[in-house]
Amino acid sequence: MQRDFAEHLLEKTTQDYNLIAEEFARTREKPWPEIKFLFDDYLVAREKVLDLGCANARFFEFFQEKKADYVGVDSSKKLIKIAQARHSSAKFQTADALNLPFPDNHFDKIYSIAVLHHIPSQEFRLSFLKEAKRVLKPEGLLIMTVWRFHRIEELFLIIKFGILRLFGLSKLDFGDILDPWGKKIKRYYHYFSKKELISLARKAGFKIKDIGVIKNKRGNRQNIYLVAKKPS
Description:
It is built from eight helices and nine strands. It starts with a helix and ends with a strand. It has one domain (3-148, 189-229): Rossmann fold (3-Layer(aba) Sandwich). It is α/β, with parallel strands linked by helices. The longest helix has 17 residues, at 3-19. The strands form two sheets. Strands 3-2-1-4-5-9-8 form a seven-stranded mixed β-sheet, with helices on both faces. It has a two-stranded antiparallel ribbon with strand order 6-7.
């Protein structure tokens, strides 16, 4: 993917989430219960934690249970405004995930739930992970999830945009889609396999601790999770 088009997609994603912020927050008020083990198993009480791509902070209660020293960041100003209104005692700020406003070796843990699949191009995805590693303390953990595409509609979009790419009719990379949110916007997504996610994390300098697939009870929501460690 050309860099200027990737930059356009990054800006588009921010604008898209500003446009749907209220609807997004209203339809996603509660945390996904199936990912709670990522907090129970890895988050230690009172650790300094970054919620990277926090959106409306719907997972805040999981951090609050561990009395984490919490900071939530997102590129969408409107989602940050909603998050701050809901959790007035927590710290939130608008920030670029590729250029975080924090010093080196600052956080014990970084959680990034359903974010990396919105980052276009391998270059920027690698930058995202390297920036997360920069602000993590040595031996700190990055705990993240990305969508696992499994529905017919998603697979159809992957095939559709793959064919368009093959014939030079799309600037998207293979594995990229634009997924409609009603008639308002089309959100950019990249389809990850576990193999690709592992490879990317290793290129960024992480050591892989765990990877797997999480499903909700109905099986209609599926995510790949990755737990990666910054070397000492």
